[in-house]
């Protein structure tokens, strides 16, 4: 109980620190093979992300979709579901956001346009999320596979809808949204950081409140911990599964706020690609807690923007390797620690 | 439409099908042993890259193909280390493995060829797919894997480990070791699929696996976790893809996106049980 941290939390901190160290070491090896000094690369990475106003803004901008998708994965995980569908829900949601925000009359006020555009995105995300939830609840179809398959289905549908009328001719982006639906910039240098970062923080706080303070949130967690116990105590498990997947989809669908409303002002094919899969990493690194999700999204956002700033020294693919190594090491170490504790501590720690 | 069923068209179908089928065979072995086969995408990519490096250095198609096998197995070993040695969550580890290869292959490509986007041309296949030894190898492998799984003692152990690991362990089957063999074999097979991709395109390009690992997994599920049926599902997907490519060239008919969706939609339908019960191995995804 040193430093007010419980034994299990200390173990998590050790595991995370170890994962970061291993990733840095692996990265150093690759950087050395490339023939550059690792200190110079890591120094540049740090200086041009957290060390400058623009860099910091870009970190927040890159972290924002990761918070949304990280929360999406975390919410489902709390209810005992592993979703890989954030990628598709994100694409569908952002597309819907852009279509609605572009279809509004040109003089629509922000008070009307912003909620409408956001609700379109979250609603669409919720539908795309609820479908695998329903398939799981009704047919027992495993959500990991159905969400992966739906990602491809959504990508194809978006392309189809885009190509047959929604995209500006000869491009893969939609029309410009109305001025009222623009989200204000945070004013950090010329960075793309915008108010949706604040929105993401509010959602994170909301998720924390939901699981920590509400009865429904408690029921969802019970379903996640033991579906049979939950069923026995009168909770409608199937409904919880569908609802949790819908909420997860809604959170992923909110991503459009960042790129569509806050930055580009249109939907572009492939926008924020990879953020869905990265959401799994973010949720894992953040241990499924909303606060942890925000922190790990900031770390991954730093790496994402860091890739661009070090691109003159080493290829930016290096940061993708770093991100993957962090996740793999973290998986290995936390699983190993968990097992070591279970073997040594027996019933006291449980598992 | 009658003109479409030509020999050239069938050759195109086969050319598309082979990497799917090889990866799906690997996926079947892995999943029947109880290990989630979502990392096929990374294995394909690793195989394609290793093939390119060796074929470029030696000028030999055969050595390139062997390197693909080794490359895929190496990716599988990384994945196995995390999920078998450390018993980590297989889905998350798969996603991370795929991300690792998506980053590592362009990095190494930049290192080896000075371009992270594509490699210089390597010796590849000739125009006639039926004259390629690798094609006949793939065909033999389909039968070989089916035989291994259904007719050998090892296949019996592998299935036991995937369905009832506790029971298997209690009769003395080394569960983890059998799973290691299955995962490494899946990497070798998917790696050969990657080799096919690289040799077929005569070079490596960034993200050249292009989601084929996921289609292969879809075929595993469509084939109800049986090797020959999975290969047939791949043939069907290959047929649909070739048809779509030709319709696109002809400039009409069904929108190409809807044809692209087909394997994924069919997989979802298969999972709901509308086309016969599709049951996953009992212990799939459980560390032990």
Question: Which key features would you list for this structure?
Answer:
heterodimer; A: mainly alpha; ABC transporter involved in vitamin B12 uptake, BtuC; 73% helix; disordered C terminus; B: 288 residues; mainly alpha; 11 helices; 72% helix
Can you give a write-up of this model?
The complex is a heterodimer of chains A (about 350) and B (about 290). Chain A has helices at about 5-35, 40-45, 55-80, 85-105, 110-140, 145-165, 195-215, 215-225, 225-230, 235-255, 255-265, 275-285, 290-310, 315-345. Chain A is an all-alpha fold and about 350 residues long. Chain A has one domain (about 35-315): ABC transporter involved in vitamin B12 uptake, BtuC (Orthogonal Bundle). In chain A, helix 5 packs antiparallel against helix 10 (about 235-255). The longest helix of chain A is centred in the middle third of the chain and has 30 residues, at about 110-140. Chain B is mostly helical and about 290 residues long. Chain B has a single domain (about 1-270), classed as ABC transporter involved in vitamin B12 uptake, BtuC, CATH 1.10.3470. In chain B, about 70% of the residues lie in helices and about 0% in strands. Chain B has eleven helices and no strands. Chain B has helices spanning about 5-30, 40-60, 60-85, 90-115, 135-150, 155-165, 165-170, 175-200, 210-220, 225-250, 255-270. In chain B, helix 3 (about 60-85) packs antiparallel against helix 4. Chain B starts with 6 loop residues before the first helix and ends in a 17-residue tail after the last helix. In chain B, about 55% of the residues are buried. The model of chain B has no long low-confidence stretch (mean pLDDT about 90).
